C-alpha cells in the first residue's frame, strides 16, 4: 500500500504537490491507468467500465458550483486572481465536455449495491464542497489547484473514451502545470499557508482515490456476475 509522502518543512510547495499527485493522483491509480490504456482497445475492456467512470465523475464534479467555483469565492490572495478567473471558465467547459462524453458512452451500468455507491459519492462530493468552502486560508486553494493538476490524468481518460465512441476531443483550456505551480508558490509565502494548501491537496486526492477504489470494486462486481 502506497502512502502520501511526508515533505520536509522547507520543501518548495510545487515539489510537495508534485510528489502528492505522483503517489496519490488519478494517474497513479491502477484502475484509472487500466481504463485509460484499454479505452482504445475495444476488446480489452467493456465499455461499461468507461461509462461507469464518466458518470461517477459527473456525480463528483459535474455540477455547478464545484470545488474551483467555491474556492474562487473564498480566496482573497491577489496572486490567485488571474488563475482563478481562467480556471473557473475552463472548468465550466470541462464539465460540459464530461457530460457529453458520459452521454455518448451510454447509461451507468447496473451494478449490485448501486444505491450505496451513489450515496458514497454524494458524501464525497459533500466533503469536497466543505473543503472548498473552508475559512482556513489556503485550504480551498489547495483543493482547487490540485483538482486542476490531477484533472490532466482524468482528461486523458475522457479523451480516450471520447475517441472510442466517435467524439472529437475538445481542447482543454485549464492553466498549464507550470502556471498552476507558480501560483501555488505565490500564495504560500508562510508556513501556515503552505500547510493549509497541502491539507487541501491531500483531502482532494483522498476523495479522488476513494472514487477510483469504488469504481474498481464496481467493475469487479460486474465481472463476477
Summarize this structure as a short list of keywords or feature phrases:
225 residues; mainly alpha; 70% helix; 0% strand; globular
What does this protein structure show overall?
The structure is a single chain. Helix 3 packs antiparallel against helix 5, helix 4 packs parallel to helix 6 (about 115-130) and helix 7 packs parallel to helix 9 (about 190-225). The chain is globular. It is built from nine helices and no strands. The protein is an all-alpha fold and about 220 residues long. The protein has one domain (about 45-225). It holds the Pfam family DUF6975. InterPro entries: DUF6975.
In brief:
The protein has one domain. It has nine helices and no strands.
Indicate the structural class. Answer: mainly alpha
What's the total helix number?
9
Helix content: over 70%
Rg calc = 17 Å
Q: What's the SSE pattern?
A: HHHHHHHHH
Note poorly predicted spans: none
Query: What coarse outline follows from CA principal-axis ratios?
Result: globular
| Straight-line distance between termini | 28 Å
Largest sheet: none
InterPro entries: DUF6975 (IPR054248)
Pfam families: DUF6975
